[in-house]
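note to self — DONT lose this again. spent like an hour looking for the file last time. sequence + predicted structure for the chain T wanted, 389 res
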Amino acid sequence: MKIRIGFIFGGDTVEHEVSIISAVQAMKNIDENKYEVVPIYITKDLRWLTGNLLKDINSYSDYDLINRYAKEITIVKDKEDYLLKSKKGLFNRTINQIDVAFPIVHGNNIEDGTIQGYLNLLKIPYVGSNILGSSVGQDKVFTKKILETANIKVVDYVWFYDYEYETNNQDIIKQIQTLEYPVIVKPATLGSSIGISLAKNEKQLKIAIEEAIKYDRKILVEKVIKNLKEVNCSVTGNYEHAFPSAIEEVIKEEDFLSYQDKYLAKGKSKGMVSTNRILPANISHEMKLKIEETSKEVFKQLNLSGVCRIDYLIDQDTNELYVNEPNTIPGSLSFYLWENKGKPYSQLLDELIIQTIKDYKNKMKKTSSFETNILQNFNGLKGSKTKLK
């Protein structure tokens, strides 16, 4: 009997379309001799839909078609089964069911631990990092703070909340100017280069901050490395074992790798696979080993699992290596970095699912609640002298 994999994607996020691209790629590459694909698409207005047409990227050019033929569902746990129940009709009939969830979601409101928390609550085994790893990995400021305590280098930065800038922008601008121009301004919890701008002077800085504030409450400003080489390394595994992929060198068309570079290169939406790159990266053997070891340590420190991609900045003047950010659910699941190591996409997906099942079985051995009810003989608080400790 095939294992039913519920691919979850979409959601209320500015990276909605990027998620669709990544999920369709994965659904098309999974070994259908072993797995049954069950697409679960979350619309921008948070309706959950399923249906075979959701496997086809062309379906998403006509949302009226999706609304007409896809079935709106909710996920229900029934004993040991995870059922996709219809939300229409009187009898709430079962449309399908899944054995394992595979979230391929990007961005705030969903990748940041939100979907992981929902799946945890239903006790559905799912591929990827848990709530903690997902939420920390989504917040670039949290990431930097944790890596600094582990003596892993990050570039100099300043961060602040939107209300702080609105009430005291001159002090914040002075603080940023200690980094020296140019600087990169980013929404702290977004990905896919959305809302990111380069600022070469104070006028551009103010415009860049206003742009970032459109997307996020927390803003990050980083010093720019002038003689820069950008490289990425993917990691798979869990808290016990982590394995690094091939390392890519990213070729960007602008001052930084933009949304256009990542997802609309040459006018086609193929996800991160369409980005211009040198693979493997043109780096020394010593730097390659350093990136591999650092990637495994970052994976461990941030409590990640499944597959992630860690982005690096190399200062070519000093040969210093800096962690830029992790991607807890990377675009295209970084399958191209594993193919370069001789691991086909179908094998990568297979290994992620097998690891998820093993980890879930181990997790279920841990105590999560007590059978005894401490409230059984509790008479209530009204008029009682009982104190809760």
